[in-house]
Design goal:
It is built from 15 helices and no strands. It is mainly α. Among the domains are: 63 residues, no CATH class; 62 residues. The longest helix is centred in the first third of the chain and has 18 residues. The model has no long low-confidence stretch (mean pLDDT 85).
Amino acid sequence: MFYYLTIALQGFCIYHLIKNRNQYYWIFLILFIPVIGSIIYLVTQVYNKRDADVIKENLTSVLIPTKKVKDLEKKLQFSETFQNRLDVADAFFEIKDYSNAITHYEVALKDETQNNYFILEQLIASYYNLKDYNKTIVYAEKLMSYPEFKQSKSEFIYGLALDKTGDYEAAEKHLKSIDQRYSNYSERLVLANFFIAKEKGDEAIEILNEIAIESQHMTKLNKRKYRETISEVEKLLKSL
């Protein structure tokens, strides 16, 4: 419990720091002296009654994730609005309860007066996580006419679903859309593995080499964020 509380406290402090554009040297204090550094930051940079309530709310959400869902469900019962239902769906999605998230997203989708692009994106991700690849494809194809769909994470998931259902040629076309330099590192690693599985080693090596080169120019923060991806890239390059 103490470990998760410390992580939550660090996360809130860094979020507050970035949001309020405070000096970045605080990050080192928060990360390398976790408890004391976070407390010093809170006392000197955050603390007032309103912010104390925000801290309490954020820590509670991390430690008791279902509490947020229950609170939002009560709000929906009191006032059944589109936004309240969407908030409940998003809360279920955050805790990876995709079945319940889908239930509320699909109800919200019936409101044709709203821009439902975001809901369709969430449904695509939810169905894919539940391994319902046919439904993933159905909802992805509803977005194909939108320009925002091109080179998006939703198009990438669509490609993964096509691969799972055996449509490899179409899968490759949509998976390749995510291959953008200096971004999408995890997705590009998945694409490299796709090429390896399809015995297209040259294409895989090209992507892996690009990621390896780009990793040399990452900020320390991004190197930490993508450490596992970079490590896997290095292992694959050695094995090919």
